[in-house]
Every structure is written in C-alpha cells, then in structure tokens.
C-alpha cells in the first residue's frame, strides 16, 4: 500500500480540505508541540507538554507555564537577552 501522508505528515487527518500550505503550517506547529525540550531547573532534555501552555520535566517533576506550542516563546527570549539571561 502507498503512504497517504507523505507530504503532510500528521496533518493528513484533514484529507483533501484546507490546502497544502495550511497543512504544512499545522505540521510545523504539531512537530514543535510534541518535541522534547530542556528543563530550566535541572537542565536535562526531558520537558514535555502537559496541556496548552503547561510544561513538565519528567526527571525532576518541575511544572511551569510557557507558550502554547513551545516552552519559551519569542518574547521570552527577547526579554531574557535584554536582562542578560538565557
């Protein structure tokens, strides 16, 4: 059998609707949402998304608020750079 979601990946659930450009954007968001990030407390690469804007480290059980799809948003990085932290 052929692969049905070669171009669109996880956004293949939308079928023939919405167009390829929208599906690519959704695929990028879902990819960043599901990936693993670095914990700000223990610095291990073990942070996963619990709910929208809530992130938890699986090693030290540290829960913190962040962006909806990434734990650190662009505004956070800008502010951290201005304060001299990263």
| SSE sequence, one letter per element | HEEEEH
Care to count the β-strands?
Answer: 4
Low-pLDDT residue intervals, each spanning 5 or more residues: none
Termini gap? 48 Å
Helix amount = 25-40%
Put simply, the count of helices is 2
Coarse shape:
elongated
The structural domain count equals 1
Mean pLDDT: 86
Query: What is the name of the CATH topology?
Result: N-terminal domain of TfIIb
Strand content: 15-25%
CATH architecture: Single Sheet
What integer value in Å does the Rg equal?
Answer: 16 Å
Please summarize the sheet with the most strands. 4 strands, antiparallel
The class by helix and strand makeup works out as: alpha+beta
Strand order of the largest sheet: 1-2-3-4
CATH level 1 name: Mainly Beta
Describe what this molecule looks like in 3D:
The chain has one domain (9-83): N-terminal domain of TfIIb. The chain has a 4-stranded antiparallel beta sheet with strand order 1-2-3-4, with no helix packed on it. The protein has 86 residues and is of the alpha+beta class. The radius of gyration is 16 Å and the shape is elongated. The mean pLDDT is 86. It has helices at 20-34, 74-83; strands at residues 37-38, 45-51, 54-57, 63-65. Helices cover 29% and strands 19% of the residues. The protein contains 2 helices and 4 strands; from the N terminus they run H-E-E-E-E-H.
């Amino acid at each position: 059998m052929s692969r049905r979601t070669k171009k669109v990946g996880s956004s293949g659930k939308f079928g023939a609707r919405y167009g390829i450009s929208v599906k690519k954007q959704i695929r990028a968001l879902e990819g960043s949402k599901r990936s693993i990030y670095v914990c700000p407390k223990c610095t291990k690469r073990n942070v996963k998304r619990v709910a929208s804007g809530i992130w938890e480290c699986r090693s030290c059980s540290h829960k913190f608020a962040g962006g909806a799809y990434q734990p650190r948003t662009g505004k956070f990085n800008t502010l951290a750079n201005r304060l001299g932290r990263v």
